[in-house]
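Thread: "does anyone have the structure for this chain?"

Original post by V.I.:
We have the sequence but no experimental structure in hand. Need at least a predicted one for the grant figures.
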Amino acid sequence: MVNRIKDYRTRNGISPKELAKLVDISVSHLRKIERGEGTPSLKLAVRIAKALGCTLDDLFF
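Reply from O.Q.:
Generated one for you, tokens below.
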């Protein structure tokens, strides 16, 4: 599964700290997810997609 969170985040000019705050997780957790070292729950994945203005398909498939 491809993870494009970092691509969409940088495209939108959002820092890791800002996105983490928007979706209510720690920056370290977000960075692990971006690196593929952690997997977000479906609920968290939906919050991330909403915050970045895209769909789950855009981010993960």
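V.I.: this helps a lot. The chain has five helices and no strands.
O.Q.: and Residues 5-54 form a domain with the 434 Repressor (Amino-terminal Domain) fold (CATH 1.10.260.40).
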